[in-house]
Amino acid sequence: NLETTYNEAQGGGPAETTAQDAAEIVLDDLMRKEAGYVDRIADGNVVIITSAGFTPTETVHTPLAPPLKPENMKLKHGDQPGTITITCDKVEDAKGFVTIMTTDQNAVIAVAGQDVQVSSFAGTLILNVSSSRKTTHGSLVSATRYYVRRYAFNAAGRSPDTDVISIVAP
């Protein structure tokens, strides 16, 4: 059908070209389905793949590594009192970011998965998980200093933490 519609489209008008495009989509879909069927049945068996008229390929998957440390973290006063915006550079392969904010400069906070361990702590602790490298935090106490650090994560693990920087909430 594709060959027929192709021949008709040569020197034809828009309708013939549209018919050719539709026939090409149908053929592409059929070829993908056939390749998927052979792939499932063959389960990597080269003899079955070649007997079906396909050429086997080798796919090498590179294991996912934990993301790198977020760089250039910046804190900025928000438009509203008690609001700050936190940004950092894009981190390749990161699925999200965890921001840790505290009012205690000497707080020892360890985050591992969903477990948070806090020692030597007195003050407020805020944890925020976001898929965005830019987040806005509100409901902070104005004129209070907040110490902020952040790390990126993906399915392979987490990055090292950023350096701690501070800001006084507006």
Summing up helix and strand content along with how strands pair, one would put the structural category as alpha+beta
Summed over residues and divided by their number, the pLDDT gives a mean of 89
Shape: elongated
- Proportion in helices: 25-40%
Major sheet details:
5 strands, antiparallel
Low-pLDDT segments: none
Number of helices: 3
Please report the distance between the alpha carbons of the first and last residues. Answer: 69 Å
Radius of gyration: 28 Å
Query: What oligomeric state best describes the polypeptide chains here?
Result: single chain
Number of strands: 10
Helix/strand order, N-terminal first: HHHEEEEEEEEEE
- State which percent range the strand residues make up: 25-35%
Topology overview:
Elements (H helix, E strand, L loop, with lengths): L1 H8 L4 H29 L3 H6 L22 E4 L6 E4 L8 E7 L5 E5 L2 E5 L5 E6 L3 E4 L7 E10 L2 E2 L6 E4 L2
Antiparallel strand pairs: 1-2, 2-7, 3-6, 3-8, 4-5, 8-9, 8-10
Helix pairs in contact: 1-2
Structural notes for this entry:
- The chain is an alpha+beta fold and 170 residues long.
- It is 25% helix and 30% strand.
- It is built from 3 helices and 10 strands.
- It has helices at 2-9, 14-42, 46-51; strands spanning 74-77, 84-87, 96-102, 108-112, 115-119, 125-130, 134-137, 145-154, 157-158, 165-168.
- The strands form 3 sheets. Strands 3, 6, 8, 9 and 10 form a 5-stranded antiparallel β-sheet that branches. A 3-stranded antiparallel β-sheet has the order 1-2-7, with no helix packed on it.
- Strand 4 (108-112) and strand 5 form a beta hairpin.
- Helix 1 (2-9) packs antiparallel against helix 2.
- The mean pLDDT is 89.
